[in-house]
Each structure stands twice: as C-alpha cells, then as structure tokens.
Amino acid sequence: MTSFSGKAISWELKDGVLELALHREPCNELGTESLAEFEQLVAALPSLEQHAHALIIYSRLNSGFSAGADLRETYHRTQNLDRAAAAASIRESLERTHHVMNTLDATPLTTIAAVHGITFGGGLELALTCDIIIADKTARFCFPELRLGLIPGFGGIPRLKRDLGNAVVRDLLLTGRSFNVTKAQQIGLVSQVVAEGQALRVARATAAQMAKFDRRTAAAAKKFIKPIPYDELRREIEIFCDLFTHPAVNQGLKKFVESTDALPYLP
Amino acid sequence: MRTQQQTVDEILDLAAAQFKVPRESLSPEDDFFKKLGIDSLQALSLLTRLEQHFNVELPDYELQGVSDFRTLAERIQARL
Question: What value of ipTM does the predicted structure carry?
Fold first, then answer.
C-alpha cells in the first residue's frame, strides 16, 4: 500500500519520500481514531521502507502541527471507570501509542517533522520521534502535562533527555511554558527555522538531498547516533499510569473539558 | 528604548494586521479576546508574533489573567 487516506492521517509514497499528513480538526488531537490509523502506517512501514529513503510528517491544518493527546476523549473514556479500570484503559492506549512512536523513532528512514503553529504535548512528542525538526516561524512548542497533574506520556521525557540538555528539559517540563521557534532552535530542538508556510517545502528539499546518500550508510549512521531509550520509555508508562489514578488528574481533565474559558490550552 | 506608549502602539498595529481588524477600532484598554474575537490558540499565535517583533521571550504563565492590550504591553516592556 503506497498510499492511504484516513480520517485523521493520510500518507503517500512518492519518489522515495513517504509523506505523512495530519488532518484531524481542530488541531490534530491524537485520539483513538488517529492511533488506529497510525497503527496501519506502522504495519505498512516495513514494506514502505523498501522503496523509500525519507519520511516527512506534516500537518495540513492551519492551526498547527498537533495540539497533542485528545484530552476530551480521554476524559469521557475514563470518567465512569473506577481507578483501576481507568488506569488499565490508559495503559492499553499508552502501550499501543509507544509502539507507534518507537517504530517511527527507530525506522531506518531519515525522518523529518515539518511543523508550524501549535506543537504541544503529544504533538511535540510525535515530532521528537523524528531525526530532524524543521519549523516555520509560527511554530510554538509546549509540554503542558504538569498543568493537568500528569507527565508527557507518549515518550516525550526520554526523547527530550536524549536530545537536549537536562536543565532545558527541566525548564520545559516543570514550568509547562510554551516557547517559540527562536527558543526551540537555541536549545537544539529545531534544526532549521523557515518563513511562515515554508516548512514542508524545505523538508522536501532536505529529503531530496538525502536521496543522494547510500541508504544502508544513512540507516547505519542513524542507528549509531540515535539510541532508543527503551528502559526509560517503559518507566514513563509506569509513572504516567500511577499519576493518572490520582483524583487531581480527573479534576484537571474535567476542568479542561468543561472550560468555557478563552484559554483552555493554558489550564 | 521604547516607551510604554510605543510598545502599546506596536502591539495594536500587530494585532490589527494579524487579525485583519481596523487599527483605529482598537484601544489599549480593550479586552483582546473579545475585541479580536480570538480563542486561546490564536492568542498564542499573537504571542509568538509579539515575541518575534520585540525580540523577547514571554512565558505564557505571565499572561494568565491578562486580557487587555495595556497590561500585555507592561509585561512585554518589563522584558525589553
């Protein structure tokens, strides 16, 4: 299958570049539907890898790359469950999400996230699976999870620790503040900053450059310089599930879901 | 060094241009959520543009509870 058109994501393999588009309104919230379609991508990836050298992930929506996990769906799915059942439900979806993220992280393809606008929470975690992040000037990044009594759950902390300095990671996580592309490039998160609306074009140009390199060499280099922190990723799931059973989380999610405030993204 | 009035004026210019409202319809005391009809995502987009324009970093938690242009200008002025 060289192309797929879903409700949340679509992909197409063309000239050795696999382009994965996110297009679930309002801002590519990652929920059950998205996860199922990502799992289809992961299942197709071994075959696609035979014909591709690069993967580009981008959003078709003006609002941004992704606002992260679908918190409304999470709240509605778990609010009537007892704590143990809610934790089990969350664990199941986290295990599946980690499988997707880890597969994208480890693919021998050279991966590029072309981001703009809101790149928050799980959306940032998805971008962090990529080898290179190219961002336009509208991009804004954030790990807001602590505001809800949680930590990032899609592999964000281990990947941030792998890629950035620990002091930066503490700042981003413990303040939960959002930051712009200038800051993102200063701390080493973003490799290229481009004009508004140019991230995908530059990502395509970058992928075209990579087509000149021997695939086996590029894959070997990637494997050498980009270890997957599996042990920490496992620990993240455990910590997340433990935190999720605390009443404060349900209260935080309820406040977010029921908010009529103008700032639901800044709970 | 900009004066606070200059900062306010530049914020109003940027907001008017970004959200395509007449500049003369905006005043410093306006609630920018109501006046511009924007949601939180759009407010963050405005924040990004303001940070780039003034070359400052403004943590969003400093803006919690801030909804008028004049107070927004004070927060930015404090980082110039």
Answer: 0.85
